[in-house]
Amino acid sequence: MDYKNKLIAIKLKKAINTKKRIELFSLKNKNNKDLIGSNNVLIGKLDVIINDYEEQSLCNDEHINFEHTETKLASRSLTTYEQKLETIYNEQEQLVQEEIQKIIQDQTNTFINSVLAILLMGASGLYLLNEIDIRIYTKLKDKFKEVMLKNYDLGKDTASSELKISKPKTPLSVKQNINAEAEILATTVEQDINNETKNIVQNAFFAGAAVTAIAISIRETLRLRAEQVARTAGGSLVGDLLNKGRATVFEEKEIQVKLIAYQRNEVLDVNTCPMCRTLDGRYIKPDDNFRNLTLVHVNCRGFWVPIFERQDLLGKTTGIPKFVVNRFDTIGGVPIINKFKQFKKKK
Ligand SMILES: [Zn+2]
Label partner for 109 (CA 20 to 30 A): which of 100, 235, 292, 312? Predict the structure, then answer.
C-alpha cells in the first residue's frame, strides 16, 4: 500500500463520525464517482475498506518499528534454494488467489437476486435475510484443503531434493490437521462474509437507500471481500504448508542425526517486511521452538534450511532476538500464527 493510502487508512480509523468518514472516502474516490452511492450505503462499504486498510497499515507499522534494521540489512542476491522457493511461492499464491476469488464471486449473483427479492417485500420481509446465505463453505473448504495438501507436498519436494533424500510419507496427523483447518477457515470466511453483507443490507435499507444502490453496494463489498480473502489465503496457506512439508523432511532420522542448526532464509524483495528481514540469515538450534515458525506475514516468504557443518556457524550468533520473539504470541514457547487474523491484531 502506498504512503498516501496508508495516511487515509489512519485518518479513516480515527474518524469517529460518519460525516467525516464519508468526506475522507469521497476525497479518496473523487475520480471514481461510480463508487459513491448514497451515503448510507457508503457506510457499509467503508467498514470493509477500513478493515482492509487497517490490515495493511498494521503491516506497514512493522515497517516503521523495524526501520532501523532495513538500512542495516542490505538486500542480497537470492540463493538457488530461494529462487526455487520464490518461483513456487509466486505461482501458487497467484493460483490460489484467482481460484478463491472465483469461488466467492460465482456465488454472488444468486445471493444478490435473493436479497433484492427480499428488499422489494419491504421491512416485513427483512427477517428472511437470515434464511439466505452465500453458500461457499463446501467449495472453499475443498479448495483450502486441496491448496494445503498440494503446498505441503511441494514443501516436501523442495526439501527432499535439496537434501537428496527420498520424500517421506505424509503423517496421518498432518492430514487430519489440514482437514480440520480447512473446515474451520471455510466456516469462518463464510460466516464473516454473510454477517457483513447482511449488516450492510439492513443498515442501508433502514437508512432509506434505494434497492439498486444496495445491490451495487453488496456487489462491491463482496468483490472487495473476495479479493481480501483470496489474498490472505494465497499468502498464508501457501507459505505455511510449504514450510510444514519441509519440516516433515527435516524430521527424518537421517537428517536429525547430523543436524546442528537451522538457518532462516527470506525471499528478499519489496514485499518482505523489515521484521522478516531481521530474521533472514539467523541461525537457531535444532530444538529451538522457532523451528515451528512457518510464515510470519502474508506478504513475506520465509523458510528454514538445515545446517550440517560446524564451520557454517563459526562466529555466528544463534537464536531469535528478544525484540522479535516478543512480537509473537507463543504457547509453551512455540510461536502461534493466526493465519486469517495476523494483521488485525497489533501486539
Ligand atoms: Zn514479514
Answer: 235
